[in-house]
Amino acid sequence: LLRRQEAEPGQILLLAFGRQAAGEMNDRIKERLGDVGIQAKTFHALALQIIQQGSRKAPAISRLETDAKARKELLITHWRQQCAEKKAQAKGWRQWLTEELEWEVPEGDFWQDKRLADRLASRLERWLGLMRMHGGSQAEMIEQADEESRDLFSKRIRLMAPLLKAWKSA
User: Fold this and answer.
1) Rounded-to-integer distance, Cα 146 and Cα 149, Å
2) Of 56, 59, 161, 162, which is least surrounded by CB within 10 A?
């Protein structure tokens, strides 16, 4: 459209489902067209832009919403802290990682293993995102789980609860 001069950059809207996909789209545009002033956005970024344009006061958005590195750092730091300080947490996480996810977990202070932490970070983000989207209390989430998986689900929620609390207070 731009090459044929059928549209201006401000008339083109590129939406992606996630930040990574938006980044890839932006890289392709720059590679093919140079810096033409088109920016792919996620649906959330578009919604924020619309709110900011239609309102005098911009909503307060946590840095964690937009900074993947800060998000990962917060989650892994608090996960490690929970495992180091509470034997029940460490035992629960070891069980979850080995039995359910079938990961090989090092003996001893497994939470200090960088490869394991890097691998776990994206899962923690996803699980935390699901808990935040649900919005209700932990008891409500547990109550809504299938009866046959409720006990296990309850254990997983208890393991994630300190991370959710850390997120909310960050």
Assistant:
1) 5
2) 56
pLDDT tens digits, one per residue of 71-97: 899 999 999 999 999 999 999 999 999
Packing angle of the helix pair 87-95, 150-169 (nearest 10 deg): 120
> Computed from CA positions of residues 75, 81, 83, 87, in that sequence, does the dihedral angle turn out positive or negative?
negative
Residue 124 near residue 163, CB atoms below 8 Å: yes
Long-range contact pairs involving 88-97 (C-beta distance under 8 Å, separation at least 24)? 89/159, 89/162, 92/155, 92/158, 92/159, 93/159, 96/155, 96/156, 96/159
**What string of DSSP letters covers 150-161?**
HHHHHHHHHHHH
Going from N- to C-terminal start, the domains of the chain cover: 9-61, 65-169
Whether the model pTM is above 0.90: no
Which is nearest to 96 in space by CA: 11, 170, 32, 153? 153
Q: What DSSP character marks residue 15? A: E
* Residue listed under structure tokens 């776990």: 120
